[in-house]
DNA sequence: CCAAAAGTGTTCATAATACACCCATGC
DNA sequence: GCATGGGTGTATTATGAACACTTTTGG
């Protein structure tokens, strides 16, 4: 860095530029006991959209963290969830998407096995809860055991964020190994556990023989997964062959 | 909006939150006379990275415009390019990616036919110029008629932005109709013009018969393109059948 | 007439999809 | 013993890649 540049940086005043706020929001998916796809929502304790449900997220700390780091921190603070693999989804930046001021949201998607999801509501947010995703004439509904939320009633533009996340995950599932992230145990699973994940995300029933073949081609023959040459009892009626994801690299 | 919420919004002080700056940057690709893939770069007139080359872009005006609008405006102001289809690429947000302060970049990709590219350098930026993209042991080089830039010498993290844009466009070309955006005339083109676009992006020679068949399956039979039932002279040696993109919707 | 661009047909391996059927086990 | 979850084989069709070949046209 030469001297001119040094002088310039000294003079630079941050206030010269009107800045938007930036948040990181996270769309968290998991599978419940029924193998249905679930979404994690949080009830907002503060204005704006007080008492509305929203995806977890919060303001990025400028000069301290990236959007990825902010997303990981907010998820931890609001729900207690840690060590998850976040994928950037899209950045939503309409000036009127937040009534307070211009708030730009960098949205992320996380796929988390239910076992890893011990939700503990944090300070900022209120209740954190999982909802089944149901399609309806009027759009998407989010079902809790005791009540239902319409996507129309979500805070901000979170309806669009969730819709984009669902579209993205459906589009990727057939050619990216996303499904493995939802396995209860990546180091010991059966083909049918994996099949159920695909079925939940695609929302359709798959053919057993064909699923097995494509698993062999795409994940066994490529070395992404390995056959453990062990059988697991008690999953269903018959013992099932066990497999493991080999590369921990994602 | 109830009264409580109104009072809250009144009290909200923007200064309570330290904000990052936000820019929109645009990776513009085109094809030159040799049907080589070209990238548009701009020589910076100001610090930081004065006299370095960078992709066009600039600060988003908070409370006024979205990142998409900022990208379109900056592209127009810096290069004179208008009415292009911008696709969001990724958001880069490392706190140290700009020496001034935390500057988050929402990056976009634009594919523009050369005919539409009448570059007129604007106020903010210096020269705007097209570069051939060349792969080298040391990484990617950008070739102008009279000089060469290494990706190592680009401003900010634009090396990573460009690399991601190249990866993305290569990955999408086989299953998204991106190539049509680079056609000189979407309402009158030959299969071989289209083939050359694919070859430039994939950086390999394609088989004529196979390309023709996949064009028929994916774009003629689906109704995305129509056969104009006319022949065009003078493109090469023999007259060629003309086609048109039917839907203007993208 | 001949090189280069435009266009066609045939083959082969692989992939997706459908369907019929067998095995093991808990109740 | 039979329903259910686990597992296999085979046939059909679609796709991708390779290759050999013909037609047209400007110079």
What does this protein look like?
2 copies of one chain form a homodimer. The first copy, chain A, has 250 residues and is of the alpha+beta class. The first copy, chain A, folds into 2 domains: 14-172, Nucleoside Triphosphate Pyrophosphohydrolase; 177-249, Winged helix-like DNA-binding domain superfamily/Winged helix DNA-binding domain (Arc Repressor Mutant, subunit A, Orthogonal Bundle), CATH 1.10.10. Helix content of chain A is 25%, strand content 28%. Chain A is built from 5 helices and 11 strands. Chain A has helices at residues 3-11, 67-79, 158-172, 191-202, 208-220; strands at 21-31, 37-43, 53-54, 57-59, 86-92, 103-111, 128-136, 139-143, 148-150, 225-232, 240-245. In chain A, the strands form 2 sheets. In chain A, strands 1, 2, 3, 4, 5, 6, 7, 8 and 9 form a 9-stranded mixed sheet that branches. In chain A, β8 (139-143) and β9 form a beta hairpin. The longest helix of chain A has 15 residues, at 158-172. Chain A is globular and about 60 Å long. The first copy, chain A, starts with a helix and ends in a 5-residue tail after the last strand. The structure holds a DNA duplex (27 and 27 nucleotides).
